[in-house]
From TrEMBL, chain A:
It is a multi-pass membrane protein. PANTHER family: SPORE GERMINATION PROTEIN A2. GO terms for cellular component: membrane. Signal peptide: none annotated. It is found in: Membrane. Its main location: membrane. This is Spore gernimation protein. The keyword Coiled coil does not apply. Belongs to the amino acid-polyamine-organocation (APC) superfamily. Spore germination protein (SGP) (TC 2.A.3.9) family. InterPro entries: Spore_GerAB. Pfam families: Spore_permease. NCBIfam families: 2A0309.
TrEMBL record, chain B:
The lineage of its organism: Bacteria, Bacillati, Bacillota, Bacilli, Bacillales. Residues 210-368 form the Spore germination GerAC-like C-terminal domain. This is Spore gernimation protein. GO terms for cellular component: membrane. It is a lipid-anchor. GO terms for biological process: spore germination. Keywords: Germination, Lipoprotein, Membrane, Palmitate, Signal. It comes from the Bacteria. Coiled coil: none annotated. Residues 25-200 form the Spore germination protein N-terminal domain.
Length: 370, 371
């Protein structure tokens, strides 16, 4: 298992830009404004900046972890776990982090289905949709990491028009709404930061993908650029939302982004919101693909006998089952809450601790050797 | 890989075909373009929906495709229901095709309905994913049903589009912009109240008839046509408005503003009587003047008079709002923006005591092509 990845299976360093970017931007983009402004009203953009800065910090931790690991073999989270904690505990920890990946996939898929149900096709069958969706995912993942990275790139390109759509609300924005600046307590801001965690989550998947990216020195730079772009993207969207909605209205709107798509009108194309939601399918495909690929790799890592193409089918079946079981909007909301908590636990607490453990291990190893 | 693709392609096709969903094909639905709601009392309303009617002109090339173009579709439906009922659902039993609100452009309420309160209607529209947010709302002096169902208009285009064009057109001139979007902004927002244009039917046409000012969701006050310019001047920056000034009995000049902007400053926002300073800049052209009343040399004098007059009007306007305890100009929002730790709870009590100062600066750029 611990042999190096062949260059033929690796992707270029620019993928370190597209992959985390596409993982981060998704369905959360439609609704994050409401939850965040609940605590810090017009100062929520500040929370977004803080949260973004934190995500950059955690990205540094992630890259540090991986780079320290390079000399011992494969630079990914599974190897780190087993090397530091031994085979048994390492496997348990792998399970712990992979559960989050599973949650990430199911939550992305289910949230997307929810949006389609609410805005476009209330009658759409969840089972059939997720089945077709997972077939597509299966087809892509069968192509290997390079295909997944390609889909991430496509997804990024397809989603650019959506960010341009946001510009249409600038003439209606009342930037006075942003005043007075910084009028909230640090506690309120931190609460907002925590609520923002789920939109910034996703970049930590680099922990699993990293060995497949060639030229790590360049890749690291691209990873940071990716995180910065996300911060810019979310912060500007948030500022526009605060300026465009009054606070009371924002608290009343579950999907503020779709609400302002709803007010964009072109002479020939009505209902941009529906087109945009359909386009958002492309934000979900790479997530499900990458997550199923990661889980399949985890299975292979733990039980090398099982081939990835077989475990993949089971994993996708699990996605379909998980998605179909979550029947109501309330459950989707609870799933999102659980996902945010789990994710915050992993990135803010677990990863720094892991880095610390790695450091201890290094110290011990050195003192044992001398 | 190729084999696999060949294997799953029919499978996907099968699934896609079995996953058919109800569609809304534009030829096979009734696109509701306007809804009118007249209050009857006791929670009952008379609802009217209006659909476009693509008929009357025989199309020689229509062949046998679907509907003959000469066939008339339903043009409007009305009936009694309760307040807050979705009219599309109410009238579906009488629809020859599915009714859809995806292109709803106009919602009308008669004055009784507006006085009773629109919160159920606004909640309905806010909850509805299908209806667009940029539709126009208006209060109708008279009956919405009559307005939407009359056939005696001069224009041949569907009445819903006629009214919406009129409202949109006027919101580029004297009337402030008002759509569902702005109404919800002010209705759900704190420290502000919404407003809507009032329209009425005059014989064979429809006209704008001032602004309906709301307190929360209830219509409480009408702003007459000649005050609308002052209102808009304090509300947003705009151009193309026309202001008529009677500087002496029966002697008028009319300004067409090229550009107007307004700036607010607030002092003592948390005291019992906050000071609100509005400074308005009007750059204007003279459109019409009493003969001999204005030329390039007498311009500055007229500007001064105008400054004073418009500022006085603005202050009077705000005093009227304060007496009614309504805030359609969103002054509370300005105070909130310029006050740290704004005390929002006591604002409704403090608002009537707020001191409003207005400074208007008119610049007459041109007086026309004759001396």
């Amino acid at each position: 298992m611990n042999d190096k990845i062949k260059p033929a299976h690796q992707v270029g360093p620019v993928s370190a830009f597209f992959i985390p970017q596409v993982m981060q931007i998704g369905i959360g983009y439609l609704s994050f404004q409401q939850i965040i402004t609940k605590y810090s009203q017009q100062d929520a953009w500040l929370a977004s900046l803080i949260s973004g800065a934190l995500s950059l910090g955690i990205l540094w931790v992630v890259l540090r972890l991986l780079e320290n690991e390079r000399q011992f073999g494969m630079p990914d989270l599974f190897s780190i776990h087993t090397r530091i904690f031994g085979r048994r505990i390492g496997t348990i920890l792998n399970l712990f982090t992979v559960t989050h990946v599973l949650l990430f996939a199911i939550r992305s898929l289910r949230s997307y289905i929810e949006i389609v149900h609410v805005w476009v096709f209330p009658q759409m069958s969840m089972f059939l949709f997720s089945l077709i969706f997972c077939l597509i995912a299966w087809y892509i993942v069968s192509g290997g990491m390079r295909t997944i990275a390609g889909v991430c790139l496509l997804s990024f390109i397809y989603l650019v028009p959506l960010s341009i759509l946001t510009l249409f609300i600038v003439p209606h924005a009342q930037f006075e709404n942003l005043l007075p600046l910084i009028d909230h307590s640090p506690a309120a801001l931190l609460k907002s930061c925590y609520e923002l965690t789920h939109v910034y989550l996703g970049f930590e998947l680099l922990l699993y993908v990293y060995p497949f990216i060639s030229n790590p020195r360049e890749a690291r730079k691209w990873a940071f650029r990716s995180a910065l772009t996300t911060v810019y993207f979310y912060t500007t969207t948030l500022i526009l939302a605060i300026a465009y909605f009054s606070q009371g209205e924002l608290q009343n709107t579950i999907w503020p982004t779709v609400a302002y798509w709803k007010s964009v009108r072109f002479p020939l194309v009505e209902h941009i919101d529906i087109i945009a939601i359909v386009l958002l399918l492309w934000a979900t495909i790479p997530k499900v693909c990458l997550c199923s690929w990661i889980i399949a790799r985890a299975v292979k890592f733990t039980v090398p006998k099982i081939k990835m193409k077989y475990s993949l089918i089971v994993i996708l079946a699990l996605f379909i089952a998980g998605t179909t079981m979550i029947r109501t909007g309330l459950l989707v909301k609870q799933l999102n809450v659980a996902y945010t908590r789990y994710g915050a636990l992993i990135i803010y607490i677990y990863l720094p601790i892991l880095l610390f453990c790695q450091w201890i291990k290094k110290k011990r190893g050195r003192s044992a050797a001398s | 890989m190729k084999q696999k693709a060949a294997l799953i392609a029919p499978l996907i096709a099968l699934l896609l075909l079995s996953g058919c969903l109800p569609t809304s094909i534009i030829d096979d639905v009734l696109l509701v373009e306007a809804e009118g709601i007249d209050y009857l009392g006791d929670g009952k309303v008379m609802g009217t929906v209006s659909m476009p009617n693509y008929a009357a002109n025989p199309n020689p090339g229509s062949g046998g495709a679907g509907l003959p173009t000469t066939a008339s579709m339903l043009r409007h439906l009305s009936g009694v229901t309760y307040d807050g009922k979705s009219l599309v659902d109410r009238f579906q039993p009488s629809g020859q095709m599915p009714l859809r609100v995806g292109k709803l452009r106009l919602m009308l309420f008669n004055t009784a309905m507006a006085k009773k309160g629109l919160y159920k209607q606004i909640d309905l529209r806010n909850r509805d994913p299908d209806a667009p947010r940029d539709m126009s709302l208006a209060v109708v002096e008279g009956s919405c049903r009559k307005m939407l169902t009359s056939a005696d208009y001069q224009t041949q285009i569907p009445v819903a589009r006629y009214i919406q064009d009129m409202i949109e057109q006027n919101s580029e001139h004297n009337y402030p912009e008002s759509t569902l979007e702005t109404f919800m902004y002010a209705y759900y927002g704190d420290y502000m109240d919404p407003f809507l244009p009032i329209i009425r039917k005059q014989g064979d046409h429809i006209e704008m008839y001032g602004l309906a000012l709301f307190k929360g969701d209830k219509y409480v006050m009408r702003l007459s046509e000649n005050r609308v310019f002052t209102f808009k001047m304090l509300f947003q920056k705009f151009s193309q408005g026309v202001y008529d000034y009677e500087f002496a009995p029966n002697k008028h000049i009319a300004l067409k503003n090229v550009h107007t902007n307004v700036n607010y400053k607030v002092k003592n926002g948390n005291s019992s009587s906050p000071d609100i300073y509005a400074s308005v800049n009007v750059r204007a052209q003279i459109r019409q003047a009493n003969p001999g009343s204005i030329s390039k040399s007498t311009g500055p004098g007229m500007e001064k008079k105008l400054n004073k007059h418009m500022a006085k009007e603005a202050v009077q306007l705000v005093h009227r709002f304060q007496r009614k305890r309504i805030d359609p100009l969103q002054l509370g929002q300005h105070v909130r923006s310029y006050t740290r730790n704004f005390d929002g709870k006591s604002w409704p009590e403090r608002y009537p005591n707020a001191r409003f100062h207005c400074k208007v600066d008119v610049t007459i750029r041109q007086t026309g092509i004759s001396e």
